[in-house]
Amino acid sequence: MLTNKRFDLMVRDAFIIDGTRAARFRGDIGVRAGMIAGIGDLSGARGEVELDGAGRIAAPGFIDAHAHDDRLLLSEPDMAPKASQGVTTVITGNCGISLACTPPRGAMTPPLDLLDGEGSWFRYPSFAAYREALAAKPAAVNAACLLGHTTLRCAVMDDLQRAAGPGEIARMRDIAREALAAGAIGISTGTAYAPAAAAPTEELIEVCRPLTEYRGLYATHMRNEDDRVMESIEETCRIGRTLGVPVVISHHKTVGQANHGRSVETLALIRRRMSGQEVGLDCYPYIASSTVLREDRVEQSSRIIVTWSKSHPGLAGLDLEEIARRLGVTKAVAVERIKPAGAIYFMLDERDVQRILQFDETMIGSDGLPHDVKPHPRLWGTFPRVLGRYSRELKLFSLETAVYKMTGLPAMKFRLAGRGVLKEGYHADITIFDADTVSDSADFERSTLAARGIDTVIVNGEIVWRGGGPTGKRPGRVLLNRGGRVGQNTQDVP
Ligand SMILES: [Zn+2]
């Protein structure tokens, strides 16, 4: 037992869930200089600030394994949609889309417009420039950033409807190497989307070559998540094996009624591949997906809600069916009229969602789209929904396992040094919540409500969220890859 010790901050008498899946225990946490300096019975010690954790859970801050927060970190550094859920680190730059490295076009090509429809935020000529902007004006939470292959394509190619030629591949590879040298944690691809759909596997491999040397990872919104989902998993794993790097299958799902139930097959395949290579996957806890508005999704979805439209901003939040009725046209014609736009698609099966969430290697990622006018509720609700609905109410897994899926597991998969676990010597990213009441408030009607039951959120030893609002503190760090370890500096725990 420590006596007469002083800490900058203490959490008193909480149930500690440490992020390793170990059973909770009652104890105190002492924080000094942004690090966890004591954990257990610290009754003899004092803190400059003391937080009463009685009856509450103290867990590692949540890691959003799949975010599109490249711009939000800069434009709304309180990061309220994430901090309010207990998230302390975001993995951003997913689905082939990153702000880093400026595409030359003015009007943004979908899906890059998910980050910024006007294009003015695409102002960072290199990953290093983006990283510096983040470091100069820190956000409330930490960020580890991927470089997007679609962004690279838009930057170097004049025609996106074809495979890149050797010169274009070489230019993309050079930019990728430079970004990885500057600390990008890996490269993301989004071959499901038009600007990258024409990229063959060989292009992806050749552009991503520098991942091997820098020990970065390959994350992907796969080419296909419906009828050819198995082939897509195989393509992803082949890329990982060829490059000798870990892969992350983003927002895993099986789309469209014909493919409902196929998560049995996909998870079995993922499990098999995991025995020979490093594979990760993440999932959001909803039966509806969300992205740009696409005609090919109309038939596959039982319901579509429009989240934004550049030409018809007043339609955001309405069902496509209602919009078609108002315009007096078919849904397909309505899609053409209101594009560019975003949408929510009801096209997943609850049983698949539960099966994927329950798979022991599945991480939690929000895939939240923070710049949509009426966003999918996953932006504000993902983590509390997993804790409340899927763990407490439906009992898919224990609270310890739920916490692991959003802390220790993603820290391991993304190789975040000294994070994701509550342990002495680790960074003091801590979320304090009420296990009995934690739940998502955002739904498809009112989609930007903050969750319930999240009391206090601490990032690098500083309180960023408390009493239902941001504190204004911005201690977030940019976490950089250095030879396969992702951290803020060389003192990070190995
Ligand atoms: Zn995606």
Q: Per DSSP, what share of the residues sits in E-state strands of 2 or more residues?
A: 15-25%
**Alpha carbon gyration radius:** 22 Å
Low-pLDDT stretches are none
**Shape annotation:** globular
Bound molecules: zinc ion
The count of helical stretches stands at 16
Class derived from helix and strand content: alpha/beta
The pLDDT mean sits at: 95
Instruction: Let me know the number of strands.
Output: 22
Topology:
Blueprint: E1 3-16, E2 25-32, E3 35-40, E4 44-52, E5 57-60, E6 62-64, H1 72-75, H2 80-83, E7 87-92, H3 127-136, E8 142-148, H4 149-156, H5 166-181, E9 186-190, H6 194-197, H7 201-207, H8 210-214, E10 217-221, H9 229-243, E11 247-249, H10 263-274, E12 279-283, E13 288-292, E14 303-309, H11 320-327, H12 331-338, E15 341-346, H13 350-358, E16 362-364, H14 378-393, H15 399-405, H16 408-413, E17 430-433, E18 454-459, E19 462-466, E20 469-470, E21 478-482, E22 485-487
Parallel strand pairs: 1-4, 1-5, 6-7, 7-8, 8-9, 8-21, 9-10, 10-11, 11-12, 12-16
Antiparallel strand pairs: 1-2, 2-3, 5-17, 13-15, 14-15, 17-18, 18-19, 19-20, 21-22
Helix pairs in contact: 4-5, 9-10, 11-12
The site of zinc ion has 4 residues, from loops.
